[in-house]
Amino acid sequence: MAHSSEPKRTALPKGEDAPRDNAARPLYLGPRIKRLRRELGLTQQAMAEDLGISPSYVALIERNQRPLTADLLLRLARSYKLDMSELAADERDDYARRLSGMLKDPIFAEIDLTSLEISDIATSFPGVAEAMLRLHGAYIREQQALAGLREGTGGDSIADPVGDARRFMSTRRNHFPTLDARAESLADEIARTGGQQEWLRKQGVRLRFMPADVMMGALRRYDRHNEQLLIDDALKAEQRQWQIAVHIAYTALRTEISALVRGESFATPTAAQLVRRALAAYTAGALLMPYDKFARAAQARGHDIDVLAGMFGASFEQVAHRLTTLGRPGHEGVPFFFIRVDAAGNVSKRFDGTGFPFAAHGGGCPLWTLHQVFRWPGQILPQWLEMPDGQRFFSIARTVTSGGGGHDRPVTIRAVALVCAAEHADKLVYARPEGMPAPPATPIGMTCRLCNRAECTARSEPPLGRDILPEDYRRVAAPFAFAES
């Protein structure tokens, strides 16, 4: 890894005390320094070179076997552009206070720990203190969720950050005008400058493509010390472009993204982080596929995703995702429902712009080709769908891959689907040819427990509120026979 030309300070050998040229009380901030190093994507060797100390000394600091002195605090703040007041805050008193509060829980009633013992744990074993606090926090959240379920209050939402994040995006119909407008103007600026790499260079950031051993498992890493953006060199062209765009979103549009997150109250910090990540991805899509240009191209090309991917240098999934965001008043696109699942049916991404009924919990309908495309990797499967209430939709589904790029790098295969209401299907090249009758629709349900199609042979369980008939003398083709009422 390249480092700045700043003169190196004398390295401190293993076992040597830290310099004491400041009279301030040294601090033991091992866990915090370790978290910082991991967030920055640095090895102990790289951090040691940046700070002018030895790697063994970094290891001693992280294990709280050496203090972090005022001089080292200054070096950290200068090297990584950090707020020194936040970095220097002593965690010991905070750990002791939180441990004391935790030990007031009735579950610890039989345990008698003095304030001196609690302080000793917080000071000498901060890692143990953090582990205890995490376990107790998880215990409390599970207890609250269980209590809520027993009382019928839907307590599972208390600890459902993914659900909170999806609700945030859904209530805004996955459209954020401020991000689109800012991204559109920035995309023009980047194009005039000569592309992403040249634009970053003018911001003082060097773009480098590095091998996996340097990236340490990261696809993208911003080295704040050396002002360089590092990208995994094994990524495909569209993946590289996407990761660069995400970095630009996090930096150039930080104010706009932060304002949207601050404007909402989230039950957990994780929910806020998930929303922040979703907004950065939204912005990256808007940078690579500016609203007006992309919307016109989508309409002109009949929403042919492969064609659009070639025009904008994006992947199939990136284009499909962007199609769900075209909600600008007066210039709306087709309202799409987007979903991504793995082979086990786990949902990892979902956006609803068309009112498509989808079960938030439980398995989806196996008759939907979304769950069948794994048998035909890379092929687009169109399908007309009809819900039990008569609503008709048009769907396309296809597998997408992520990962890979090397012999020992695993590939993850998922399925994505785009769904629109039947009245919009004629705008898609995948639907029936003009003038030809639409093929029969596949009757599907939201999920077996909410579907009353008695004749369905693919059913896995009976619907709620329906009694099944005995089969002592008669067995029907469907898994269950239902009573009339």
Automatic annotation (TrEMBL):
SMART domains: HTH_XRE. One of its GO terms (molecular function) is DNA binding. Keywords: DNA-binding, Transcription, Transcription regulation. InterPro entries: Cro/C1-type_HTH (IPR001387), HTH_RamB (IPR026281), IrrE_HExxH (IPR010359), Lambda_DNA-bd_dom_sf (IPR010982), ScfR_C (IPR018653), TransReg_Diox_bact_type (IPR050807). Pfam families: HTH_3 (PF01381), Peptidase_M78 (PF06114), ScfRs (PF09856). Residues 1-23 have a biased composition (Basic and acidic residues). Belongs to the short-chain fatty acyl-CoA assimilation regulator (ScfR) family. This is XRE family transcriptional regulator.
